[in-house]
Design brief:
The protein is of the alpha/beta class and 256 residues long. Helices cover 30% and strands 20% of the residues. The protein contains seven helices and twelve strands. The strands form three sheets. Strands 3-4-5-6-11-12 form a six-stranded parallel β-sheet. The longest helix has 15 residues. The protein is globular. 23% of the residues are buried.
Length: 256
C-alpha cells in the first residue's frame, strides 16, 4: 500500500519528498531504495495540533530501517517527548535496532519510557511472532503492541518460542507467564502485550486469509484480558472457499 501511495503522491506533487523513492516496473510501483525524510514542517506539526491525537509514526516506512539515519530518529523522539498530549505508536519489523536505540540513546536523551510512546512489532505469521515478540517484550516501553497484519497464517500468542544462552522456554505474550523448558513446571513472570491488532491483506493479489485465524487470536486476547482490534477482513469481497467455513461455523478451535 505504501508503494502505491507514494506513487500517487509523486504524480500529484512534483515537489514531494517521495520523489525518487518509487519507480514503475511491469506497470507497478516498487521501491527504488532511496530513503527520504519529510520536510521540517511535517516533523513540527504535532507541536501545533490543538487537540490530542493518536499518531502512527512513519506509516509509510519503518522508523528503524537500517537506512534511516540516527539523527532523524533523534528528531522524531524529541518531538514525541515534547508532545505528551499525543499518543505515538511505532511499529517495526526490526525490533533489534529498536531495542538497541531505546537502550543506548533514548534512555540517555530523555526520561524513558515516555508514557505517550507505544512500541510494537509486526508478526504476520508464527515464525515472525517467535522472532520479534520476545525482543519487543524485553524492550523498555510504556505499552507494547503486536500487529498481526497482514495475517498470513495462524499465530498462537500463548506459546511464543524463545531462548538465549541462559534460558530456553515458551512465553504467553498475553499474560507474561514464561515456562522454562529445561526445568518443566518452572514459571517466571515477565512482560506482556498491551494491545493486539489483527487483519487480513487487501487489494489485488492479496494472499489467503482464513477468518478462523483471527477468531482464535481474538479468543486468546479475550481470555487474557488484552484489548483486541480487528482492523479488516480481506478488502473488497470475500473468497467463497473461506465463506463456507463462516456459513457453517466450522471453527473447531475457536469460540462458536
Amino acid at each position: 500500500y505504501a508503494m502505491k501511495m507514494a506513487h500517487r503522491i509523486c504524480a500529484m506533487d512534483p515537489d514531494s519528498h517521495y520523489q525518487g523513492t518509487v519507480k514503475t516496473v511491469n506497470g507497478n510501483p516498487v521501491w527504488t531504495g532511496k530513503i527520504a525524510t519529510a520536510q521540517g514542517k511535517t516533523l513540527l506539526d504535532p507541536l501545533h495540533w490543538p487537540s490530542p491525537r493518536m499518531v502512527f509514526v512513519n506509516s509509510m516506512g519503518d522508523l528503524f530501517h537500517e537506512g534511516v539515519r540516527e539523527d532523524w530518529i533523534n528528531d522524531i523522539f524529541a518531538i514525541m517527548a515534547l508532545c505528551r498530549q499525543h499518543i505515538f505508536v511505532i511499529l517495526t519489523k526490526r525490533p533489534e535496532r529498536m531495542q538497541d536505540y531505546i537502550r543506548t540513546h533514548a534512555a540517555g536523551l530523555m526520561p524513558w519510557p515516555l508514557p505517550n510512546v507505544w512500541l510494537g512489532v509486526s508478526a504476520e505469521n508464527q515464525a515472525e511472532a517467535d522472532a520479534r515478540i520476545p525482543i519487543l517484550l524485553a524492550t523498555p516501553a510504556t505499552k507494547r503492541i503486536v500487529s498481526v497484519e497482514p495475517m498470513l497464517g495462524p499465530v498462537d500468542l500463548r506459546n511464543i518460542q524463545f531462548g538465549d544462552e541462559l534460558f530456553y522456554g515458551t512465553k504467553n505474550a498475553l499474560t507474561g507467564v514464561v515456562t522454562c523448558l529445561e526445568f518443566p513446571g518452572e514459571l517466571r513472570p515477565g512482560k506482556s502485550l498491551d494491545w493486539v491488532i489483527c487483519g487480513g491483506e487487501s487489494g489485488a493479489g492479496r494472499r489467503r486469509f482464513n477468518p478462523v485465524w483471527a477468531e482464535i487470536v481474538r479468543d486468546q486476547c479475550e481470555l487474557a484480558g488484552v484489548p483486541f482490534f480487528f482492523k479488516q477482513h480481506i478488502g473488497r469481497g470475500i473468497d467463497d472457499d473461506l465463506l463456507d467455513g463462516v456459513r457453517h461455523h466450522n471453527w473447531p478451535e475457536a469460540r462458536p
